[in-house]
């Protein structure tokens, strides 16, 4: 073959390759541009920075996984108000007036009551109902923080709650403790300091991630799709484990018992009356398939029956401690557990559930206060 023809053929092949690459890049650019325009027109722009501004702010803490910082937070979209002392609801004075009967309710998101706007969370409703019953000098403080377990509640009462001089302290915790029931390592080895960077929803993954999030809504959309696929993302955080296989370990049960015992003893040491409450939940032995579909088993890594058993063991532990230590115990679980009208998911309450729980505990507290 003529050498000139070979050179021309080789040159022609290079041109075709370059042309093909350019064509592919142009097509990709057009597709991405169209995608960017579509996302901008059809979806809300929400970078991690924007999401952070719309979310509750937490701070690392030594005696709890985290706390609300000492500043007001007003999350208007959700109807949540955090006061200057880092508690949900209206502000209160550190020093309690002598005539005030102060109740502090400790727990996780089931106490925070995220589905209810400010003033309608069940601890707030509890205060109103007791006032309507005639205890006009009652003050109920919502000390619920999403994600908190019994050891967080004990730590916060031990390091801060006591300075508020509560007359009664209520403990309403089970779900967040059950997350630790399957661990074979001590609690100390499983906990780690709070770091907002661990949550991709409010933290960037480096400079490039930040730059792309701020310049491209399409990137933000694809980023969210990727992380949602990689992790199970919900109202209680991010779960990496995708299988429900865990079993209850004795170490977790012993830790839960110790936490509750210490909380009760500490309450008495600060001259407050401890009240242990069995947690109401949707989870029950008789759940329908529809009810099971809104129970997030992945947060606990347990099958349904294992989760039912875990809740029942927390009930038994609370009842045993209440009896052995002569501690006040309320049992809204008896009237509410397994009734879907009261719940939006596994433990979080609906409007009807918040009202029901507040009413049950108001009846119990009213009797208890009047008997003192």
Largest sheet: 5 strands, parallel
CATH 4th-level superfamily of the largest domain: SGNH hydrolase
Structural class: alpha/beta
The overall pLDDT, averaged over residues, is 89
Number of domains: 2
**Number of helical runs?**
14
Which term fits the overall shape? elongated
Gyration radius over CA: 27 Å
Distance between the termini: 110 Å
Q: According to CATH, what is the topology of the largest domain? A: Rossmann fold
The arrangement of helices and strands along the chain is HHEEEHHEHEHHHHEEHEHHEHH
**Spatial order of strands in the largest sheet:** 4-3-5-8-9
CATH-level-2 architecture of the largest domain: 3-Layer(aba) Sandwich
The share of residues in extended strands comes to: 5-15%
| Total beta strand runs | 9
Features:
2 domains, 10% strand, 372 residues, five-stranded parallel β-sheet, Rossmann fold, 46% helix, two-stranded antiparallel sheet, alpha/beta, 14 helices, elongated
How would you portray this structure in words?
There is one protein chain. By secondary structure, the chain is α/β, with parallel strands linked by helices. The protein has 2 domains: 1-42; 51-188 and 244-371, SGNH hydrolase (Rossmann fold, 3-Layer(aba) Sandwich). Helix content is 46%, strand content 10%. It contains 14 helices and 9 strands. Strand 6 and strand 7 form a beta hairpin. Helix 1 crosses helix 9, helix 5 runs parallel beside helix 10 (250-269) and helix 10 runs parallel beside helix 12 (304-324). The termini are far apart.
């Amino acid at each position: 073959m003529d050498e000139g023809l070979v050179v021309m053929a080789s040159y022609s092949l290079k041109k075709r390759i370059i042309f093909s690459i350019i064509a592919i890049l142009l097509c990709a650019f057009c597709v991405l541009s169209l995608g960017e325009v579509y996302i901008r027109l059809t979806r809300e722009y929400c970078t991690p920075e924007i999401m952070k501004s719309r979310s509750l702010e937490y701070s690392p803490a030594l005696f709890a996984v985290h706390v609300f910082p000492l500043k007001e937070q007003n999350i208007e979209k959700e109807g949540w108000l955090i006061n200057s002392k880092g508690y949900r609801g209206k502000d209160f004075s550190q020093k309690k007036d002598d005539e005030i009967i102060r109740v502090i309710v400790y727990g996780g998101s089931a106490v925070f009551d995220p589905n209810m706007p400010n003033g309608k969370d069940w601890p707030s409703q509890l205060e109103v109902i007791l006032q309507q019953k005639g205890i006009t000098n009652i003050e109920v403080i919502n000390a619920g923080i999403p994600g908190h377990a019994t050891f967080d509640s004990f730590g916060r009462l031990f390091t801060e709650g006591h300075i508020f001089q509560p007359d009664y302290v209520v403990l309403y915790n089970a779900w967040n403790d059950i997350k630790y029931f399957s661990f074979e390592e001590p609690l100390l080895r499983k906990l780690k300091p709070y770091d907002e960077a661990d949550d991709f929803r409010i933290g960037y993954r480096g400079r490039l991630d930040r730059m792309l999030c701020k310049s491209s809504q399409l990137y933000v959309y694809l980023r969210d799709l990727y992380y949602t696929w990689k992790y199970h993302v919900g109202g209680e955080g991010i779960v990496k484990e995708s299988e429900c296989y865990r079993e209850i370990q004795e170490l977790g049960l012993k830790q839960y018992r110790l936490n509750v015992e210490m909380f009760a003893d500490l309450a008495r040491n600060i001259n407050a009356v401890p009240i242990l409450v069995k947690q109401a939940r949707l989870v029950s032995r008789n759940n329908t398939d529809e009810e099971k579909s809104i129970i997030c088993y992945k947060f606990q890594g347990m099958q349904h029956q294992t989760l039912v058993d875990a809740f029942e063991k927390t009930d038994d532990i609370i009842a045993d401690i209440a009896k052995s230590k002569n501690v006040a115990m309320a049992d809204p679980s008896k009237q509410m557990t397994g009734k879907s009208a009261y719940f939006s998911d596994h433990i979080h309450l609906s409007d009807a559930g918040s009202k029901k729980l507040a009413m049950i505990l108001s009846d119990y507290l009213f009797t208890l206060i009047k008997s003192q």
